[in-house]
Design a protein that fits this description.
The chain is α/β, with parallel strands linked by helices and 158 residues long. The chain has four helices and 13 strands. Strand 12 and strand 13 form a beta hairpin. It is elongated, with a radius of gyration of 20 Å. It binds coenzyme A.
């Protein structure tokens, strides 16, 4: 049945509206409760959900054992792939370059991203890399390096 036909049938449309309203509410509550659960159980700080925009989802971050030493101002997009044991400092943005439809960054394992860094677009960061404070990552960073600056360049190997 199309939405047009549903709208013509007032009774059916009423029940459809009621159902979709409660379905939306359940989805929102489920997200809120799951966020609170992971905040309490893993991150042990409500700041993680209150002061950041982690669209990637706390469950995903919990699975990867991501560590936030100072969880403020961090934005991680929905499509970001993140490996295990990464450390992300304050005011870091990891996301798409322009908007919807863009590709998101991929982070390997054991990566440290220091304060105020932006990692944007279709970039890959290799395992054990360290990204220095206030860097802008626009291109791939190999594994086992320290990269800094705008745009980020390799300055040393770890
Ligand atoms: C990336 C980092 C770990 C590198 O430390 P390091 O290995 O000791 O590097 P050095 O201090 O020897 O610097 C090497 C070169 O890189 C430059 N450099 C270091 N960090 C830089 C940064 N974040 N942005 C731009 N250039 C940087 C230095 O100026 C130096 O350049 P030079 O050789 O021309 O003088 C460190 O600089 C850094 O960014 N730490 C993050 C600190 C932070 O965010 N702390 C949060 C606390 S809450």
């Amino acid at each position: 049945m199309t939405m047009q036909k549903l709208k013509e049938n007032k009774v059916l449309y009423f029940f459809w509206s009621l159902f979709s309203y409660f379905f939306r509410k359940i989805t929102i509550y489920k997200r809120i409760f799951s966020n609170l659960y992971f905040c309490l159980i893993y991150f042990r700080s409500f700041r993680v959900v209150l002061l950041n925009d982690l669209t990637i989802g706390l469950e995903r971050l919990y699975q990867s054992k991501v560590y936030f030493p100072h969880p403020v101002g961090i934005v991680i997009g929905k499509g970001v792939k993140i490996g295990n044991n990464c450390t992300i400092y304050q005011n870091v943005t990891i996301g798409a370059k322009t908007g919807i439809g863009d590709k998101y960054p991929t982070l390997g394992n054991n990566i440290t991203v220091y304060a105020n860094t932006c990692i944007i677009g279709d970039v890959t960061i290799g395992d054990n890399a360290i990204i220095g404070a206030c860097s802008l990552v626009l291109q791939d960073i190999p594994a086992n390096v320290i990269a800094v600056g705008n745009p980020a360049k390799v300055i040393a190997y770890v």
